[in-house]
Design a protein that fits this description.
Chloroplast_QOR, 12 helices, about 25% strand, oxidoreductase activity, 7-stranded mixed β-sheet, 15 strands, alpha/beta, 6-stranded parallel β-sheet, single chain, about 350 residues
Length: about 350
């Protein structure tokens, strides 16, 4: 497809919100060795996309303008696409296959404070992690980070998995130690912002394990979160919800923290002796708390989680959706030609489940 143009969405400066997005035509990329060129079917929008537009990683990222959003240290490129062409070395896919793909390819891990500091200060590392944006008709992905999409899983159903679903999976299995086959000791889990993109996956995945799930959300979503399997649900605007106290009096072995603005002092009295808070959107205060707890040998820990998914984990989640054991709740769907509507919806901050864009 060399020389052909494609529709893409970009912005040319920090700030501007939805009004700052522009629809343009840019060259179609080419698949190199071990890569596949993909045509967009559906993609999910993540809060980090518009936060980067606001400048949360300034001046390190974006490295240049204009910028096609959708891929960053905090928001990985996950979407369902229709395969178009494959590069040399690709034998597991053929032209026309439908796949789920992840663009970025940094390691999956929870960083310690020193590593986070180096990462934040090292432009070379950021360049390794950040690749081309995904709000475009065509993108290039690594074959190792692309998995087949079975016909039982629609593009819209699965579009959130490579980012939100895998963030929930990583937090629960690696950081919280939950075994999703139901084995292992029973754990008490708290999930904040449980009606959101990551939260609604986290509730469902946690209940596949041997867990008791307490969840927080707004009043309008209490019944929805219960329908996902949560054992008890708190309205975060009530005194009990703000204090994060389990109605049954349980102490939490792990907190999957998907919200923002909750101080450590609120979590600590609600944690079990060795309880931990896994913060999926850690800021400077979370990093400082993490370091302090490590230095003081506290049994209660805060774990800042920076996640990039693995192909085998993505395949696992796709199969859960196929088997009806996991579902993506769709807040709204927007055509790529109206990306600014999806952008404004995400900025509003009250989406239930995932915001989806389709070609």
């Amino acid at each position: 497809m060399a020389g052909k143009l494609m529709h893409a969405v970009q912005y040319s400066s920090y700030g501007g919100g939805a009004a700052g997005l522009k629809h343009v035509e840019v060259p179609v990329p080419s698949a190199k060795r071990d890569e596949v060129l993909l045509k967009l079917e559906a993609t999910s929008l993540n809060a980090a996309d518009w936060k980067i537009q606001k400048g949360i990683l300034r001046p390190l990222f974006p490295r240049r303008f204009p910028y096609i959003p959708g891929d960053s240290l905090l928001s990985l490129c996950g979407f369902f696409v229709r395969g178009v062409e494959v590069g040399p070395g690709v034998t597991n896919f053929k032209t026309g296959d439908k796949v789920v793909a992840i663009l970025s390819h940094c390691l999956v891990k929870a960083f310690d404070a020193y590593e986070f500091f180096l990462l934040a200060c090292n432009i070379a590392n950021l360049r390794h992690i950040i690749e081309s944006g995904r709000l475009a008709e065509f993108v290039v992905a690594k074959k190792s980070l692309s998995v087949a999409r079975p016909p039982e899983v629609s593009a819209a159903e699965g579009a959130g998995l490579p980012v939100a679903g895998l963030t929930a999976h990583q937090a629960l299995t690696q950081s919280a130690g939950v075994k999703l086959d139901g084995s292992g000791n029973r754990k008490n889990i708290l999930i904040t912002a449980a009606s959101g993109g990551v939260g609604h996956y986290a509730v469902q995945l946690a209940k596949l394990g041997n867990t008791h799930v307490t969840a927080t959300c707004g009043a309008r979503n209490i019944e929805f979160v219960k329908s996902l399997g949560a054992d008890e649900v708190l309205d975060y605007k009530t005194p009990e919800g703000a204090a994060l106290k389990s109605p049954s009096g349980k102490k939490y072995d792990a907190v999957i923290h998907c919200a923002a603005g909750v101080p450590w002092s609120t979590f600590e009295p609600n944690l079990s002796e060795n309880g931990k808070v896994i913060d999926i959107t850690p800021g400077p205060s979370a990093i400082m708390t993490f370091a302090f707890k490590k230095l003081t040998f506290s049994k209660k820990q805060l774990v800042p989680l920076f996640m990039t998914p693995k192909g085998e984990n993505l395949n696992y989640l796709v199969n859960l959706v196929k088997e009806g054991k996991l579902k993506t709740v769709i807040d709204s769907e927007h055509p790529l030609s109206r990306a600014e509507d999806a952008w404004a919806n995400s900025i509003d901050g009250h989406a239930t489940g995932k915001i989806i864009m389709e070609q």
